[in-house]
Structures are given as C-alpha cells and as structure tokens.
Amino acid sequence: MRRYAPLLRMREVPCCICRMPFSAFLILRSARRAGNPADRLRSAPEVSIATRSNGLSEGRTIFLQRPLALIGFFLALLFCRPCLADTLVLDGAIEQGGLVHGRTEPGAKVTLDGRVLRVAPDGGFIFGFGRDAPASASLDVVFADGRGVHRALAVVQRRYDIQRIDGLPPEQVTPDPALQERIKREALAVSRARAVDSDLGFFAERFVWPALGPISGVYGSQRILNGEPRAPHMGLDIAAPRGAPVLAAAAGTVSLAEPDLFFTGGTVIIDHGYGLATTYQHMDRLDVVLGQHVEAGTPIGVVGATGRVTGPHLHWALNWYEVRLDPALAIGPMAQAAPR
Q1: Would the pTM of this model clear 0.90, i.e. be above it?
Q2: Which residue intervals of the chain are DSSP H helices?
C-alpha cells in the first residue's frame, strides 16, 4: 500500500472523511498501516475462520492484509474523488482591470455572471474585469457529475487619474466627417481581431515586458484632449526611445498587423488563446505579418510616433475578448520582468 500513499495524500481533503462510512474509514486506516502488502505478506497475522460444511466444522486459515490493502485503496478513490472534483483555484487580481487565471476539474463548465467561459482540457480558464466593473461578480462551476460550486467575488473598485493633453491637431480630436468611415472600418478590424476565440494555450504563460522605459500613461485614466473629455486610456504607455525594439509579451499568433491606423498608427494584435490578446500601437515599423506565430520576446516592430500621439512611445494594451484589462496587473515590476 505504501506505493499508493503519494496518490492518496495528493487527493485527500478533510471533507472526504465526512462522506466515508465509518467501516470504510477503518478499513482504509488499517490498509495504510499495513505497508506494502507484498513486503508484509510473510509477516501478516493468520486469521482462523470457522466454516460449516455438511454439518461439520472445519478451520481455514487465510491472509487478509493484501485484500485489505486493495479494498482500502479502492475505497479511497471512491470516496475521495467527489471531494477532488470540488477543486477551484483562482489566481490574479480580482479588481477592476484585473486578469484572473482559474483552474478546476477537466470537463467542468464555468460561468461568470452567466457568461460561459472556455475551459481548457486540463481545467484551466481565464476571465477579467473591465475598468468600470461592478463591485460583485458570481462564478459558478458545474462538474461532470452534476455537482456545482458557487463563488461570490468581491471586485475591488479603483480610482483613476484625470489626464489632460493639449496641443493636438483639431482634426485628430474631432475628426473630419470624411474620416469617420475610415475610423469605423479600422475600429471594426480591431474588434474582430480581439474577438478571436482560439484554442491556443499561451494564455497561461507569464508575460514579459514588450519594451523598457518610463511609464508615461496608465490604465483607466480619463483623458481630456484639448479641453474635451474623451474615452479613458485603456493600456500602458511606455516611453521607450524611438526605434527601440518592441517584443511580443507572450507566444501567440498575429491576428492584426496594420502599419497606419488613424488613431493608433502602426498596430499589431497577438492572440494568445481563450480570448486573451495583447495590442501594440504607434510603431514606426512592423516586423510581423498577419497569421505569423511568435514566441515570447520575439521582435515584432519598433517604437514610434505614428497615429494620434504627441511623442514616441509604445501603447501596450491587454484584452479578454472585448473586456479591456490593465497590463500592469498581469505582469511583474519592469525591473524583474525585463525581456530576455
């Protein structure tokens, strides 16, 4: 039985005992104390069992430890398995802008506020909270055998900076009506790239910084352009030198590569799987093409000043499908997570 002990220890949780009949628990305890049945067979105590045949009593001696050990092992699997299926582990920032990695039993169905989440064959999944996500959320898991687990999540609320940017050309703050069709077309292309729902497994990788430099713009800040309020800033601005390499933050497939979008200039979007995508904007040059596979740290372009900008920098954004997330919550400090 000793060779099975690591498996049992890994699968045992306190609630197993309450689901196991007391007689089964005693058999399991005896089996675990027995050690390896093959090693202990010679020293096993003899038990004399009286049987009756044709009205005569006869004695028969048998060894019980081997069958006792096997019975204990299978009882452990039988009664501990329901508790194992209740596994639900969450890792990440449960706050506005946060990306959360989860793990449960393979074959489970997971929903967040009623939205069905894609679950990997190994039970991994992800979800995120937008800039203005409400203070509570409901996560529900239904296992293959029909049982369920519910988690009420308290979503930390944040306060955001107000950022004023003056001196932009008027046509970039309020585009000419003739440009509206182009802007709508480009926005649709970006939305489609971020909506890709692939089965790539790179969503579970740890990010590396795509560029190094001071952080000049933070997630969630409200921008007021030439005195007019505009949409919040949904990413990080890294003030790296013009021409510095931009690296893929994680492995994936290029789902968009456009050298000249009106607002964001040279733009690349990389799909990492399960709805997770990273976006790289304002690049002077693109070094990848649509559909290309990249590894973490692969050069994909250079820092530039294209699109609507006041100076060279990289705008790095993170999406879970249409939900805009904060890259700073999904990566370690720059000094520790510098690209290799």
Answers
A1: no
A2: 5-11, 15-19, 22-34, 37-40, 65-84, 170-173, 177-194
Cβ atoms of 320 and 313 within 8 Å: the answer is no
- Gap between the Cα atoms of 190 and 270, Å rounded: 11
Cα–Cα separations (whole angstroms), residue 221 to 131, 162, 174, 272: 10, 5, 20, 26
Q: How many Cα atoms within 13 Å fall on the side-chain side of residue 192?
A: 9
User: What span, in angstroms and rounded, lies between the C-alpha atoms of 132 and 121?
Assistant: 31
What DSSP assignment string belongs to 128-195?
E--TT--SEEEEEEE-TTS-EEEEEEEPBP----EEEE----HHHHS--HHHHHHHHHHHHHHHHHHT
Spell out the per-residue pLDDT of the chain, length 340, in tens: 333 232 222 233 334 434 444 444 444 455 444 444 444 434 444 434 333 334 433 444 444 455 555 565 555 555 544 444 458 999 999 999 999 999 999 999 999 999 999 999 999 999 999 999 999 999 999 999 999 999 999 999 999 988 777 877 776 677 778 788 899 999 999 999 999 999 999 999 999 999 999 999 999 998 788 888 878 989 999 999 999 999 999 999 999 999 999 999 999 999 999 999 999 999 999 999 999 999 999 999 999 999 989 899 999 999 999 999 999 999 988 864 444 3
Q: Taking a C-beta distance cutoff of 8 angstroms, is the pair 147, 85 a contact?
A: yes
In the chain, what are the domains? Answer: 2-84 (no CATH), 88-154 (2.60.40), 167-329 (2.70.70.10)
